[in-house]
Amino acid sequence: MLNSYILSYSSQSFILLTPFLWAFEEREKLLEFYERVPGARMHASFIRPGGVAQDLPLGLCRDIDSSTQQFASRIDELEEMSTGNRIWKQRLVDIGTVTAQQAKDWGFSGVMLRGRAT
């Protein structure tokens, strides 16, 4: 599922083509792991009734561990490039703000009443 979410996050603003392409690259890396285990890229069918289709390929766990360390830093870069972007901020910061009184009047609850993080 992560392979789909990373693309949807990066496509939030098509003015930023670089994060979208970076996310696409990371998605491809994730799909390679899918392909190495069951042989399918989109619909993994590793676990089956009665067991698994085959053993994990040698070195897969090591490769996944190495990839996750790189992936974490790439996620930070994607987030910074998106939320630190001047145009992105102009379009989204202070949009849809609601006063405390409006929130109470309109029946907001939960996180909507707590306000934004500072």
From TrEMBL:
Entry superkingdom: Eukaryota
Keywords, sorted A to Z: NADP
Gene3D superfamilies per the UniProt record, alphabetical: Cytochrome-c3 Hydrogenase, chain B
Keyword NADP: yes
Signal sequence interval, chain numbering: none
Residue span(s) of domain NADH-quinone oxidoreductase subunit D: 17-115
InterPro entries found in the cross-reference section: NADH_Q_OxRdtase_suD, NDH1_su_D/H, NiFe-Hase_large
Single annotated GO MF: NAD binding
Similarity field: Belongs to the complex I 49 kDa subunit family.
Name the record gives this protein: NAD(P)H dehydrogenase subunit H
Organism per entry: Brachypodium distachyon (Purple false brome)
